[in-house]
Amino acid sequence: MRYSQYFLPTTKETPADAEVISHKLMLRTGMIRKVAAGIYNYMPFGLRAIRKVEQIVREEMNRAGAIELLMPMVTPAELWVESGRWEQYGKELLRFKDRKEGDFCLGPTHEEVITDIVRREVRSYRQVPVNLYQIQTKFRDEIRPRFGLMRGREFIMKDAYSFDVDDAGADAAYEKMYQAYRRIFERCGLRFRAVEADTGNIGGSSSHEFMVLAESGEDAIVSCDSCEYAANVEKAEIRVAETGAPAPAAALQEVATPGQKSIDEVAAFLKVDPRQTVKTLIVTTDTGEQVAVLLRGDHELNEIKLCRYLGCNHLELASDDTVQKATGAPSGYAGPVGLKLRILADLAVKSMSDFVVGANRADTHLAGASHGRDFSVEAFADLRQAEHGDPCPRCDGRLEIWRGIEVGHIFKLGTKYSEALGAKVQDESGKERTLVMGCYGIGVGRTVAAAIEQNNDANGIIWPMPIAPFQVLITMLNPKEEAVRDAAEELYRALLEKGCDVLLDDRDERPGSKFKDADLIGIPLRVTVGARGLQDGAFELQARAGGEREMVPVDKTVEVLTARIAAALGT
RNA sequence: CGGGGAGUAGCGCAGCCUGGUAGCGCACCUGCCUUGGGAGCAGGGGGUCGCAGGUUCAAAUCCUGUCUCCCCGACCA
Which band of pLDDT confidence, cut at 50, 70 and 90, is reported for residue A218? Predict the structure, then answer.
């Protein structure tokens, strides 16, 4: 591609609405342009990177035996009603009517549609296992789209669905996808972790997320410093030594805490360690019930764990009004003593006694409280968020906390959708069996964003070779000098012939502009063609990632470049 | 959905408080000049100031409504 003929609108300045580095760089390099909140144009340069990722995904999915197809983006309500998700999904599902008043939605994921295909076409156990995938535009009407392609409403996703006769088959399909995903993200040049994850509203029994490690990540993950355990904090288990609480030593006693609401304020005011306090959170479940949850003062509630324990889909912290009604005190002073609600407590509270709690009265707390004596707890359970330094649930190691960008997620679905939609086959004995499913997603645009997030410097992007929009950039310094022009053109032609993705900067610009753009767009290999080098019969070669500038003889350049590319692609 | 902020030329911004019909830098166009790290000089094009209504002789500026975008947020008990 000739730069002078290409569509690559780079900017010196960053648009004011970009926050994270990948978003800024995608705007500055003209990879994307916003059309509406969370909805983007993929400009030519950005599309090239997306296509590279798609191609890697395709190759690895095919290698793992999956088969590509394409489903519609617009899907009829009937299928969603059958699975129960027309009611369940909420506002993220963008619904609309066609001219005949029929209900439709834009597909946020395709379990229903794929299961419909399989139940129509697959009758016999001999037709499975089968794993079908597509790479397609999805739409989820996110509450808060942000960070460019990292959380868009419209985005490109690879989604695969496996069907097996039994759990053993489904487990094998899952394992295959796990390995395929590892290969995909390794090939994309990403530093990532596969972590145990919550299954969320997709459903199913177990799942892993593939997390690209980056400070700007929206998710927190834990990993053990000495074993392989890694999990999303939403899911991370906490191992608690089963020590009983010491016998209460102090008497329950009211203390005045005027204006002191938060744990930090109360602990500082009373001069006690926050670890010697217990906070009482009032939550409202999706059935409208209020439940009190006790946590050690310095711990944080994990809503997902609580949700799972209570068997509800959603819960929220009670509003100030609700807290006032339930406890008789403004929020900040709730406590378990005399409270007429279900009381659950985190395991850490079990081994505590003589702690500080709210008194259910404004400006008042209780010191010397102990469970069993002053109030009773319905159940103790693992309800808190894992923290840095917590003991690993699998070994004697400690947990570390990282931030990550979720680029892939694989689920064992079980029979949730096949049961609801009736996807069954006959087995060898003629008996009907409900198919066991798995589903496997990769955010393609998000993978590109994550790659930029991990590979950049103050001057711009530093593309990993496998997903770089171009592999080589030839910077022709002064196109008006015939020798320079001819040499650069000749190299360009030779590289094209070798099948390289090469961009020739043949613009009549000053060198400074060309070098700045070269740094910004981050093509991995840069060849500078100038009169200075040509005097010695050489081109100047430099990797965007850094390292020495080297002079390469003109007639060796193609050879050197193709070798470097092959090495970087691992081919 | 709640809280905060912002909409003025393609991008980044000033002007608004104290009304008088719009400006700066970059980008763009023309010419000269220049070619190893975003050059210089000269000339030029481009904006119904998000939209609607109101106040006023007069509105980017004051008032009301509305739309859009960005940031923060269930972590407080």
Answer: confident
pLDDT at A170 over 90: yes
| Cα separations in angstroms, A69 against A58, A62, A131, A441 | 11, 12, 10, 15
Sorted by sequence, the CB contacts under 8 Å of residue A236 that are 6+ apart come out as: A196, A222, A385, A386, A393, A399
Side chain identity at residue A267, one-letter code: A
Give the CA distances from residue A176 to residues A147, A380, A418, A469, in Å, rounded to whole numbers and listed in that order.
32, 38, 21, 29
Q: What angle do CA A239, A240, A243 make, to 5 degrees?
A: 155
User: Which one has a higher pLDDT value, A287 or A3?
Assistant: A3
- Identify the residues numbered 291 to 350 in chain A whose C-beta atom is closer than 7 Å to any atom of strand B: 297, 300-303, 316-318, 320, 323, 331-335
pLDDT of residue A314: 72
Which bases of chain B are contacted by protein, using any atom under 7 A from a CB? 1, 11-13, 25-27, 34-39, 68-77
What pLDDT score does A242 carry? 66
Distance CA A350, CA A11 (A): 59
C1' (B28) to CA (A514) span, angstroms? 18
Measured distance between the N- and C-terminal CA atoms of chain A, rounded to whole angstroms: 24
Nearest to A15 by CA among A4, A6, A23: A23
Q: Is the CB of A538 under 7 A from strand B?
A: no
**Euclidean distance between CA atoms A160 and A65, whole angstroms:** 11
- The answer to whether the beta carbon of residue A142 comes closer than 7 angstroms to any atom of strand B is no
Q: What is the pLDDT of residue A386?
A: 87
Which of these ranges, A159-168, A363-372, A425-434, has the smallest mean pLDDT? A363-372
How many residues belong to chain A? 571
pTM of the model: 0.91
d(CA A234, CA A283): 17
CA-to-C1' span, A16 to B20 (A): 33
> What confidence category does residue A203 fall into, taking pLDDT thresholds of 50, 70 and 90?
low
Q: Report whether the peptide linkage leading into residue A129 is cis, meaning its omega lies within 30 degrees of zero.
A: yes
Cβ of A147 near strand B (distance < 7 A) = yes
The residue type found at A49 is A
pLDDT for A261: 78
